[in-house]
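U., I forgot to send this yesterday:
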Amino acid sequence: MSERMRLGLVGAGAIAGAYVDAIAAGKSAELVAVADTNAEAANAMAEKAGCVAFPSHLALAESGLCDAVIVTTPPSTHEQVAVDLLSAKLPVLCEKPLSVDLKSAFNMTRAATENGVLLSMASKFRFCDDVVQVHDMLKAGEIGTPTQLDNVFTGVVDMTKRWNSDPELSGGGVLIDNGTHSVDIVRYLLGSITEVQAIAGPRMQQMLVEDSVTLMARTEDGKQARIETSWSVHKDLPWFIAIYGTEGSIEIGWKGSRIRRGRTGAWENFGTGYDKVASFKRQIDHFVGVLQGGDYMLPDAHDALSSVLVIQAAYRSMTRGAWTRVEHWPRPANVPVAVQVS
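Result:
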């Protein structure tokens, strides 16, 4: 393995461009290969990045050029692509959502376990500097015990012509797309989610999937979260995460964050807000760091599977119109890279 880890990229769409920029901005890895079934897209991205293009993920895996691979293809393809790469002993950082259903998620985590290689789901907001800082603040008890979290990911985006609105490719609408980020944020800051209720808003775009959802969640120790996510409504708020504790509040904002110690204390500013490239760069650095033996806060296959379990419970809740329990798969002992599935 070279001093800089050799990364491959499967998928040459829009999100892949963010990874190209983030890898180029960092020092821990270099992009050596891009694969896509669209040869024109693969060649264009490879030319821009100064690396080799391949017509498929299998050809990339067989080349022997890569130490690990980032998967940025549509969700319906994640299972086959990831299982093939993991079976070739290549660690995988897979874009969210991990998969379109539980069966696919189980197959992916099983492949990681059986081959003894790392499978991680991309979760860029875990690697936002302000979110990381707040995680440490909560552990230090700076606002007492956190009791509630609000998360708002909304914006007006025409999704009617994008693959995200095709349930065959995406597995659902805004809930599985934006909501996967939200679920991971709640799990990261508050803990495991045990129960959810999801309510779809009036559909404003002509699509086969939901374009607005309110998701409420409860953690195993009684904390509560309210998530609002939409492709059709824009709530012009300066923050995207607000956390309320017994001894204060925190708001994580797009351009900066703030904390109020005590219920009526003055707000104190901190942080620099959300930087997409910096978050992607930090995520890649952590992925590489884990593979090189470091102790990093990287979501592993169990975290990814847990996210899928929550989202699938939310879809069941939306159908039933009621609170729904989230299935629980305990993290197995001595299996750091994936959950064992019987």
